[in-house]
Design brief:
The protein is mainly α and 216 residues long. It is rod-shaped, with a radius of gyration of 41 Å. The protein has 9 helices and no strands. It starts with 20 loop residues before the first helix and ends in a 7-residue tail after the last helix. It has a domain of 139 residues: Endonuclease III, domain 1 (Orthogonal Bundle), CATH 1.10.340. GO terms for molecular function: catalytic activity.
């Protein structure tokens, strides 16, 4: 018997590159369905039926309830394991909700190895599903590391651009300052004062005219 073809997320309409919690949970849901010994076409159809009914999170699974989940699985011809799978979906969703709040929080809290151990505590989650989830978590961690590195590069680039736009002011050395010509300024003031008040300086010599800088 030829080995089963490996199903890719894109074949199920799952966009893992979006890095959203909903898409990650869809992949987890698919792993649960494909983990049973059923034909891949049947598992795929059941998965698409669930997605079409808006079953894309632990909350929506719990809201649907056991009877409705069985109905949806039957519509997807997943009849051989409809009862047990509906029970498993509810048990796993309830455990995620009670322990972590959301599926995304569960992924954020644990690394790949610890997540695999935690998943063993979930009723109905077999080794194949755990392995798929660990692979998914590895991809998530790799993506996070890439984002972190990009953010660091952007931060360095922004700092470099800011430094170029606002260079630090250079201290002005005393040698570069221009000393005013105090003698010229004084003579100019005396000249203007003499022109306005000629009687004040009559009979005075040049040194007396410079006396306006002294005490009065």
């Amino acid at each position: 018997m030829p080995p089963k073809k490996e199903i890719q997320a894109a074949e199920l309409g799952i966009n893992l590159s979006s890095r959203t919690e909903t898409e990650y949970f869809k992949w987890f849901l698919a792993c649960l369905l494909f983990g049973k010994p059923v034909q891949q076409a049947v598992a795929k159809r059941a998965f698409l039926e669930l997605i079409q009914e808006g079953i894309t999170s632990p909350d929506t699974i719990l809201d649907a309830g056991w009877d409705r989940l069985v109905e949806i699985l039957d519509e997807g011809h997943y009849v051989r394991y409809d009862f047990s799978t509906a029970t498993k979906l509810l048990d796993v969703s309830r455990a995620i909700k009670e322990e972590y709040g959301t599926f995304g929080e569960m992924l954020r809290r644990f690394g790949t190895e610890e997540l695999g151990v935690r998943m063993q505590e979930f009723r109905g989650v077999g080794p194949k599903t755990r392995r798929e989830l660990i692979d998914l978590q590895y991809e998530i961690e790799t993506a996070r590391e890439q984002i972190k590195k990009k953010e660091q590069r952007i931060s360095l680039l922004q700092k470099e651009l800011s430094d170029r736009a606002n260079p630090p002011s250079q201290p002005v050395s005393r040698d570069s300052t221009i000393e005013p010509d105090y003698e010229f300024i004084g003579k100019n003031i005396v000249k203007k004062t003499t022109e306005r008040f000629p009687q004040t300086f009559e009979g005075s010599d040049k040194n007396a005219k410079l006396g306006i800088y002294g005490d009065t």
